[in-house]
Amino acid sequence: MEQLEVYNPATNEVVERLDYTTHEEIDAQINRAHQAFQEWKVVDAHERASKLNQWATLIDEHQDELARLITLEGGKPLAEAQGEVAYANSYVKWYAEEAKRVYGRTIPAHTPSKKMVIDKFPVGVVGAITPWNFPAAMITRKMAPALAAGCTIICKPAVKTPLTTIKLVELAHEAGIPKDAISYIIASGKDAGDIFTGHGQINKITFTGSTAVGKTLIEQSAQTVKNVTMELGGLAPFIVHNDADIEAAVDGTIASKFRNAGQTCICANRIFVHKDIAEQYTARLTEKVHALTVGDGLEEEVKIGPLIDHNAVEKVLTHITDAQDKGGKLSRSLEEIQALGGNFIKPVVISNVDLNMKVMHEETFGPVAPIMTYDDLDEVIDIANDTEFGLASYFFTNNYRTGLKLFNELEYGVIGWNDGGPSAAHAPFGGLKESGYGREGGTEGIEPYLETKYLSIET
Ligand code: SIN
């Protein structure tokens, strides 16, 4: 049987070999998840909450082990990986509580003889397809609300980072969540997408990944009109206005741009700095960026781990050289950027950036901070919105009128004002335009796993 090799991106060594799940087994697993749904959906909400809380306790107890897996298969520095486990678990804890708050409502009727009632029901069996950049958090923020709502769920983790999922599912079973209510498959994205979208017993598809793949899944799901939630690509603008606290803006840029070596969908991709403060901001950012230690995430002092693979390195280098060829000024030489070899890229600030460069149009997904200066706020808002993406955006200003104007006019689902890290389990996360639909997190994040039924009673 063909096996999946899971690599450590820091060393390019194989850390694990796993059997792919056969198509027959996936089919059988979906049938079992369908059976399990009949039982899980009638478990009362308090009991489901209690099982999720037990899962959360086990995740806390295994934080170090899970973090090490994330670093081994994803390259993320260990301290950051520990942060991811806590972040992942905050979704489990939040949805354990939300399970108990799935409320229906009654509507005042238009005639005294009627009673009109609305109630919520779980959607059914969920097929989840998750990315490699957050091997724990992207799993729990789908699994926890699905289970809380009374759905059952099968997850297809990224082939680059399946080990964290396997451990999380193992812990869920240990916590008493039925085996077929939460499970995983090892499969390629294409196989999972084809099988999940084509299967009559999968009621919902939830996906985090690229807009291109998301569009294919939406198209395929249309065949059986499946309920879908899509968390797709981003191209986040990061605006630093002339009245911003420069030190706070630099720290916010580092938090947003260099988290997971720049491999997040919400990280600052395009940095716009007002011309009055551009020199000061760029100098300070460069100083702090060059101080970030790059290396194997298992080493304690490392802040920037490897990129996920060779293709990611190639893409990032293409963006850097494209910017340089078009007049961009690199804060360190190309040789220095690549000095560590392998999948390592030293972080770089690029100034003198303009809109003709790839970094301003494509998701870079790497530790590259391109800075374009601006003069006029309305103009920069237009540029920031001039994209098909609408996931996250950021701005730094200490003027409340400027801040409210930016909040009102930026066409993005997640907005950080003087904040480079807006994500939280208790807040809705998701994009506008081609960055997807549906929200994860917050009270909104359980809604995609629920159906609404309306009952009209003639008394
Ligand atoms: C992502 O950008 O892929 C997720 C980031 C987050 O949840 O903060």
Automatic annotation (TrEMBL):
Tagged with keyword Transcription: no
Domain Aldehyde dehydrogenase stretches: 3-454
GO BP terms, alphabetized: gamma-aminobutyric acid catabolic process
Record-linked InterPro entries: Ald_DH/histidinol_DH (IPR016161), Ald_DH_C (IPR016163), Ald_DH_CS_CYS (IPR016160), Ald_DH_CS_GLU (IPR029510), Ald_DH_N (IPR016162), Aldehyde_DH_dom (IPR015590), Aldehyde_DH_Superfamily (IPR050740)
Name of this chain's protein: NAD-dependent succinate-semialdehyde dehydrogenase
Alphabetical list of PROSITE patterns matching this protein: ALDEHYDE_DEHYDR_CYS, ALDEHYDE_DEHYDR_GLU
Molecular function via GO: succinate-semialdehyde dehydrogenase (NAD+) activity
Keywords of this entry: NAD, Oxidoreductase
CDD domains noted in UniProt: ALDH_F5_SSADH_GabD
Family to which this protein belongs: Belongs to the aldehyde dehydrogenase family.
Presence of keyword Oxidoreductase: yes
Active site per database record: 231
